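A reminder from the course coordinator: this example appears on the midterm review sheet, so study it carefully.

Given structure:
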């Protein structure tokens, strides 16, 4: 039954991605989109992919620093390969890549899953903070453009939301009440729960998780960690900006437009769908509309940029998957030899 629910969940998310892709190209000239993709200047796309590789290397080094701060000294390459396998998994299994990369690292290097998962959570929190800063910068720099776009987008829907305000408030109130009741029951039965074996295991897991989460506070070189964070996001920014030169329609867009594409595209990639498919394309297309880029050119840009990055992750992640599988086999073999020698 559980496996059926999992299959249905991923089928639903895949269907959502497909529906959003249909929405993005609905009513457009597909032949023009195809022509735009075929005539793109792929030299600049190659430059963005090279930058992307450097970004992955930097991000892996940053994760290694977090693991070291959690008292998990792991060589660089196992950390990098585990991370890339996780990115590869995210293309197929939305948001499961984080768990999978921690599982790979446990098999290849013996790092407890709860500790590495805690560092990944910290990594995601940092990404959210960076995204919040980027969104603030976009709204400060381009407030008039985006406000006019939002007004035109939601003008017809505001009255509908206002008419259903009572229902929305009732739903919010019910959710808050349910959370309070759950908290009360948890506190009331806390002593009984502490005697349960499953609860003890959960507490131990959470403690390991928190050790990874707060690893950033114990970093040996916080400035180097900050430098890698800035470098990673600078790479993302340059990738979106240089990709403008692939198409004549986006060639003259400035760096503020690239900042907007980076911000809303990142929100699309963070969505719980396979590799951001559909959500990324709609958000990037909509962002480019604000800057006067037609829907056909906007979706062509999104398809080429997303397709190139997906292809790169498949290539690099595939190599890392093979290497990690070999390393896992060696680790298992070493453990068996150790056990036999002890006997």
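Designed residues:
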């Amino acid at each position: 039954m559980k496996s059926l629910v999992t299959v249905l969940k991923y089928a639903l998310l895949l269907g959502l991605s497909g529906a959003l892709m249909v929405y993005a190209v609905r009513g457009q000239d597909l032949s023009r989109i195809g022509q735009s993709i075929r005539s793109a200047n792929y030299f600049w796309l190659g430059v963005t992919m090279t930058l992307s590789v450097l970004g992955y290397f930097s991000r892996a080094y940053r994760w290694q620093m977090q693991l070291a701060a959690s008292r998990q000294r792991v060589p660089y390459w196992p950390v990098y390969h585990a991370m890339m396998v996780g990115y590869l998994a995210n293309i197929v299994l939305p948001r499961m890549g984080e768990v999978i990369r921690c599982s790979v690292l446990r098999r290849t290097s013996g790092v407890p899953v709860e500790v590495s998962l805690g560092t990944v959570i910290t990594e995601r929190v940092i990404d959210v903070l960076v995204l919040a800063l980027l969104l603030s910068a976009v709204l400060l720099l381009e407030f008039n453009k985006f406000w006019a776009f939002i007004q035109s987008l939601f003008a017809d829907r505001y009255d509908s939301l206002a008419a259903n305000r009572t229902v929305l408030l009732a739903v919010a109130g019910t959710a808050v009440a349910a959370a309070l009741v759950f908290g009360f029951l948890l506190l009331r039965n806390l002593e009984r729960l502490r005697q349960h074996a499953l609860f003890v295991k959960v507490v131990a897991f959470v403690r390991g998780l928190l050790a990874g989460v707060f690893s950033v506070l114990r970093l040996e070189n916080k400035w180097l960690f900050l430098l890698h964070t800035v470098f990673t996001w600078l790479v993302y920014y340059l990738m979106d900006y240089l990709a403008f030169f692939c198409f004549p329609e986006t060639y003259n867009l400035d760096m503020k437009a690239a900042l907007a594409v980076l911000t809303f595209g990142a929100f699309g990639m963070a969505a719980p769908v396979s590799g951001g498919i559909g959500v990324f394309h709609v958000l990037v297309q909509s962002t480019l509309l604000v800057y006067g880029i037609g829907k056909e050119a906007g979706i062509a840009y999104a398809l080429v940029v997303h397709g190139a990055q997906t292809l790169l992750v498949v290539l690099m992640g595939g190599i890392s998957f093979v290497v990690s599988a070999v390393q896992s086999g060696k680790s298992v073999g070493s453990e068996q030899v150790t056990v036999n020698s002890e006997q």
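The two ends are 41 Å apart (CA to CA). Confidence is low (pLDDT under 50) at residues 335-343.
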